[in-house]
Automatic annotation (TrEMBL):
The protein's name: laccase
InterPro entries reported for this sequence: Cu-oxidase-like_N, Cu-oxidase_2nd, Cu-oxidase_fam, Cupredoxin, CuRO_1_LCC, CuRO_2_LCC
Reactions it catalyzes: 4 hydroquinone + O2 = 4 benzosemiquinone + 2 H2O
Gene Ontology MF: a single term: hydroquinone:oxygen oxidoreductase activity
EC number in record: 1.10.3.2
Transmembrane segments: 417-433
Signal peptide interval: 1-34
GO cellular component: apoplast
Record keywords: Apoplast, Copper, Lignin degradation, Membrane, Oxidoreductase, Repeat, Secreted, Signal, Transmembrane, Transmembrane helix
Subcellular location: Secreted, Extracellular space, Apoplast
GO biological process, one term: lignin catabolic process
Domain Plastocyanin-like: 44-157, 171-324
Superkingdom of the organism of origin: Eukaryota
Lineage: Eukaryota, Viridiplantae, Streptophyta, Embryophyta, Tracheophyta
Amino acid sequence: MKSKEMMGLKKMRFLLEVLVPALLTGMLASMAEGRTHYYDFVLKETNFTRLCKSKSMMTVNDSFPGPVIRIHRGDLVYVNVHNQDDFGVTIHWHGVKQTRNPWSDGPDHITQCRIQPGTNFTYKVIFGEDQEGTLWWHAHSDWTRASVHGAIVILPAEGTTYPFPKPDGEHLVVIGSWFSGDLNKEFEEFFSNQTFESLLDDNAFTINGEPGDLVPCGRETTDRYLVDYGKTYLLRIVNAVVNVELFFAISEHNLTIVGTDGTYTKPKVISYIMIAPGQTMDVLITTNQSLGHYYMGARRFTTFSENVSFDNMTATAILQYRGNYTPPVVPSFPTNLPTFHDSESGLGFLPLLRSLATPEHPVNVPLNITTRMFITASINLINYTHEGTEISHLGGSLNNITFMDPSSSVLLAYYRYWYPFVYSLIFSIFILFL
């Protein structure tokens, strides 16, 4: 090895032996304020019956949606994932900042290799100091996230409370997709013969794993939330649907938006929400209507032309008042739920969200803008040659540049920064202190 490289390695060894322990000591001291939680996730095939048909699909701990991670702000989480399925997979902690911990973020072939069948892997999940509210986790290998996902609830730090009156109760609303077959195989077939006139579509949407009673065989298992009159409840809503924006509303009840994606927002009263795939939203409802049963409804918001066919079902759950009354034959349906092509309601929703921006929940927005970038995200037909065959397929791109798998793991090179010819010694020392 060249003497220059040897000198660089000696310097890196000094940094590792002297400075890294000091940095770790400070980091561990900052984490000591919260508690540490341990979870075991077991990936395996589980049988489910929906829409009058049964199928087997990958789940965590035999549940769909998967288990809830519930912590307080400032806590630390370890999740040991045991893969008892026959498909390699990783888990991503959606929206979690993972400060100084990118190798536990989860996207396969980007931050780690897949957890192979018969093996296990332990994730260290580090939340941002300012993260509070609702996030979620999901598989990040091919399309396994359709059935492998669950909510993350971050309660206020112990000794503190919400920036709004404490609700009388809360309820998780995880909206998911239901496909009748193996989604990975369906996508492979779809992409080999795709057109713009059809979509690979969900057979149904689900609320907490159930499509509701507007579909065959759904009435007996429809999700119900029991409430008392005159109370205020917090709904933690997760859009775990595969690539679909959704409208959500509750019949005859307004929603007060108070948070999204693990941060609080200025309260906004509205009759519906539009929630993007992967997004979470915290809303308050006040149960001030006549004793009865009221549908919660979730349906697609689409900007496709009306000649493109898609699943037009509406997933339902029931907000059910406790008390002495005669139950209705059919719950009240939300007439305030926008229709599929209601662009005004869909596109007009996002500007309503504003950060809370209080001393307790500050928003530090950089005001000195030194560089401006123009980036166009798009999905186009991409043509390429594979083994002598011309192939066209849909692909995502930024400024017409699509992602190509690297020949080696860039993150691994970053993590093991003493590898020669990957990063310079100066850069390696710099990133050590980031």
